[in-house]
Amino acid sequence: MLRRNFLANFGYGLGAMGLANCLNAGGANATQDDTTSTPPKTRGVLEALHHPAKAKRVIFLFQSGAPSQLELLDYKPLLKEKQGEQLPDSVRGQQRLTGMSGNQSSLPLVGSAFDFAQHGQGGTWISNLLPHTAALADELCVIRSMYTESINHGPGVTFFQSGSQLPGRPSMGAWLDYGLGSENANLPAYVVMVTKNKGGQPLSARLWGSGFLPSRHDGVLFRSGADPLLYLNLPPGIDQNSRRSMLDALGKLQAAEAEQTGWQDLESRIEQHELAFRMQSSIPEVTDFSDEPQHVLDMYGPSVTDKGSYAANCLLARRLAQRGVKFIQLFHQDWDHHGGLPGGIRGLCQETDQPSAALLKDLKQQGMLDDTLVVWGGEFGRTNYCQGKLTGNDYGRDHHPRCFSIWMAGGGVRGGMTYGETDEYGYNVVQNPMHIHDLHATMLYLLGIEHTQLTYKYQGRYFRLTDVHGRIIRDIMA
Predict the structure, then answer these.
(1) Ramachandran region, residue 120 (left: φ > 0; alpha: ψ -120 to 50; beta: rest)
(2) Beta bridge partners of 43
(3) Could you tell me whether strands 220-222 and 327-332 are parallel, antiparallel, or unpaired per DSSP bridges?
(4) Domains and CATH numbers, the chain
(5) Could you tell me which of 442, 475, 426, 456 has the C-alpha nearest to residue 71?
(6) Which of 9, 134, 203, 442 has the most CB atoms less than 10 A away?
(7) If you average pLDDT over every residue of the chain, what do you get?
(8) Residue 407 in contact with residue 376, Cβ under 8 Å?
(9) CA torsion, points 204, 205, 211, 216, in degrees to nearest 10?
């Protein structure tokens, strides 16, 4: 009888609670400051943080396809000196190669076509392809010793997003939503944006999915164009009161079905319906840039007004962060340069350098950088030898999981420093290796979470984002 009463009341009560949130929590204009009293259904499973958090949120700028660290963040002048010479067997060791270059009779070393210079008080070496990012060197922690386990894109991106090369595990953002919940009941806790009109390796929704966690922890994909979310707007002839009545009735029907069938996903399904109802007013507000000062728009560059562009998504990421969204992930594709690398990477840097730097400056101007963790990087690195034929002004690089570079900023990370080192050939990590699991453990620590204690029991064992590995890298913390 108690279960029957709970389910019946749940269908009514959640609908009323959703309407109350819209009326009392500031509706579309609810910001982080407006939501200090978070409704119970938006809280995560952690009753309290494991330790004081340095970061409140994450913005992850994922460069899908694996940008070459040797052209951007890991300066190796020796490769220019030895241009065209063979990769020494003593350097390669037993490292496996992909099928794309493993059958080459020659593995000629190739140096970057671009110059590097030192920037900031720490003298960080950064390519001239990234002038806007380089100007903020004192905000950056450049990690040059990342390494991973996968050598191909599908499992590589999956591993970076979920801590496993196998599909089906929850993504980073889903784990964070599960653990911490949302600060704004009118917006998702986990938002994903993909730059429009880009080629390269395909992206699948499972990369921001909830895996075996309840489906309400899925990332919500914002589309480019007039309607960021499909089917969110009310159809002709339906007003808010009608939709409210429909959701209340639907809650009753779902409660009745759960009573008969034992359906376990009732709560997630109803919460998703209720969130969609609240987002009918919150999404148009957050995606409308008309209240942004012109100097802010100019900072992000001319494409910021083009919805779905990388620049527009960077600005939208800041607006979402202001409103309490915990995990915001931008995917920018087409960094997979097996050939034509100099021209390809130059174009991509022109698309991403200014907006990425503008996001950091904007967060700092808003007083948010100190508690917003920003991460930039791809799934693995690129080889120091040329894939295919090496010519005087053109070359490509194959996949290289043994070492690559990312940068982090804000959110309790030390700025103006580099962490880790690769050998003079840029092929192996020789100091302070940092595995993907280490990065995940460190990110969670900065958010106040001990990575071994955020778990979910599935198929007879407890899973976590870092699986059974992961070291917290304290040396990069402020």
Answers:
(1) left
(2) 181
(3) unpaired
(4) 53-228+293-476 (3.40.720)
(5) 426
(6) 442
(7) 88
(8) yes
(9) 180
